[in-house]
UniProtKB/TrEMBL annotation:
PANTHER family assigned to the protein according to its UniProt record, in alphabetical order: BLR5612 PROTEIN (PTHR34595), SLL1039 PROTEIN (PTHR34595:SF7)
Renumbered residue ranges of the record's region Disordered: 448-509
InterPro entries noted in UniProt: ATP-dep_Glu-Cys_Ligase-2, CP_ATPgrasp_2, UCP005522
Annotated ranges, domain Circularly permuted ATP-grasp type: 59-435
Protein name: Circularly permuted type 2 ATP-grasp protein
């Protein structure tokens, strides 16, 4: 944030713009930001209460050279994970060559035996990825977590940009900021490229758990901006190994499903028999090559935090390259030597469940009580494979506007990548999450975090960006019944989804 006692150049110009405004004007713009998000439904759920997602009026700024390294590193990581997943559910050479022990994969809670032998039509399993990065005290970005199941949060990237371009238009005349508007069409192109063989004009849909899901705003936004239908499981049916969509005009074939439903709820024939969120027969249709499910079922094994520890080796193995972005140092508690060291240092390390997300289950040693540490010790010793340990990462800080003053706050970054097989494209910017409480290191919304618009500066030859276009209201398929309130199945699905959300934070923030 600062060079010596002065803000770095990009922030110096930004703060200069802010100081030219009166305190009352800045406060009014901040209030307008938050109320606008609540009105638009850009919210998250806390104990059943919808709250506006906090957004800071000050963007995070990433300079061109720094972004170039992030871009290369994210592309590299996605390419390696793509190869790994194809290998895991195929030949298994990564096991026979001793790069990753087979048990590391087969004991993962996200490993899907139903996916073994299922080949993606165009060889892509990771159509969308969100790679969580942190910048340490040394200024280097490192990967904290991989998200290649159903990564969420890109809607905040797009809405944050539109909101900040309205709230602080002066700043866009002084900075050459790369746009983020290309994401929906990039995603649509990747999904269309993944169509089953012989389908030249595929019908793409977005599958959502429904309006009660915490990320429904994002599902609706992506469907609308891609110009495709937003469907629930009850809108689909499988006939003779093919997926059909119910419409007021009859059944329509579906070729590509961008699903935002977890594996275990996707197909009650193969996974949870009580699921009301998916559609019976989806797995068989995918196995027959008649529909593409994006991201692929079983991708979660690459999200496992134990598998994460092997990703630098996977990059070397599959790509014959050195990692551009390193990992955070990590201890594997399933290994006796690592476990013994960590047990002696519980009070100074961060322990994480390998299948956790959204900050849930994390124990920060320096902040834990002796009783909490003893309880943690017992849980680890009972199931050591399910835990990793990492040092406390001193996240970098950026200027943040809080209660009329500017103060440094810790941030992380989730860049989003889209893979259409021909290339991995990284959205220039990504989601910056900020810990709004002083000294807080966990940036998730469940811990009081917020977000920032993320500016990637363009080269000197680019023209300054002024404002980005807004989007119209949601576009959905015509209902075939009395709506959620009239359908007991929908109410059951709502309860099922809410119970699932309590176990897994559906928000990236």
């Amino acid at each position: 944030m600062f060079a010596g006692d002065l803000p770095r150049e990009p922030y110096a110009r930004l703060l200069d713009i802010l100081t030219q405004l009166s305190q009352a004007e800045v406060s009014a713009r901040v209030e307008s930001l938050q109320s606008g998000y609540l009105d638009q439904g850009v919210t998250f759920d806390v104990g059943g209460e919808e709250r506006a997602f906090p957004i800071d009026i000050l963007p995070r700024i990433i300079e061109q050279e720094q972004w170039a390294a992030i871009d290369r590193g994210v592309q590299q990581r996605v390419r390696a994970l793509e190869r790994f997943l194809a290998d895991v559910y195929g030949a298994g050479e990564v096991f026979t060559d001793g790069v990753v022990p087979r048990r590391v994969v087969t004991t993962s809670s996200h490993y899907s035996r139903a996916s073994f032998g299922v080949e993606a039509p165009n060889g892509v399993r990771v159509h969308v990825a969100g790679i969580d990065l942190v910048r340490g005290a040394d200024g280097r970005f490192r990967v904290l977590e991989d998200n290649v199941r159903t990564p969420s949060g890109v809607s905040y990237v797009m809405t944050n940009r539109r909101a900040i371009s309205t709230a602080l238009p002066e700043a866009f005349t002084e900075h050459r900021v790369r746009p983020v508007t290309a994401y929906p069409q990039r995603l649509l192109a990747a999904l269309r490229a993944a169509a089953p063989a012989g389908v030249d004009d595929p019908n793409v849909v977005v599958l959502t758990p429904g309006a009660f899901n915490g990320a429904y705003f994002e599902h609706a936004l992506l469907a609308r901006t891609m110009g495709v239908e937003l469907v629930e499981g009850r809108d689909l049916e499988c006939r003779r190994g093919r997926v059909m969509m119910r419409t007021t005009s009859g059944l329509v074939p579906v070729h590509v499903i961008y699903r935002r439903v977890d594996d275990e709820f996707l197909d009650p024939v193969h996974f949870r028999a009580d699921s009301l969120l998916g559609c019976p027969g989806l797995v068989n249709a995918a196995r027959a090559g008649n529909v593409t499910i994006a991201n692929a079922i079983g991708n979660g094994v690459a999200d496992d935090k134990l598998v994460y520890t092997y990703v630098p080796d996977l990059i070397r193995y599959y790509l014959s390259e050195e990692p551009v972005l390193g990992n955070v140092d990590t201890w594997r508690l399933g290994e006796a030597e690592h476990r013994e060291e960590v047990m002696d240092r519980l009070a100074e390390l961060v322990l994480k469940p390998v299948d956790g997300s959204g900050g849930k289950g994390i124990v920060i040693g320096p902040s834990a009580s002796p009783r909490e540490l003893e309880e943690l010790r017992g849980r680890v010793l009972l199931d050591p494979r399910s835990w990793i340990a990492q040092p406390v990462v001193q996240l970098s800080t950026v200027p943040t506007y809080l209660d009329g003053a500017i103060a440094p706050r810790h941030v992380d970054l989730r860049p989003f990548a889209v893979n259409d097989r021909s290339r991995v494209w990284v959205l220039p910017g990504g989601l910056t999450r900020v810990a709004l409480a002083e000294g807080e290191l966990i940036v998730n919304s469940s811990r009081g975090g917020g977000s920032k618009d993320t500016w990637v500066l363009a080269g000197p030859g680019a023209a300054p960006r002024r404002r980005e276009p807004t989007a119209s209201g949601p576009r959905e398929i015509a209902p075939l019944d009395g709506g959620p309130a009239a359908d007991p199945r929908a109410r059951q699905a709502e309860q099922q989804q809410q119970a699932r959300d309590q176990q897994r934070d559906v928000h990236p923030c």
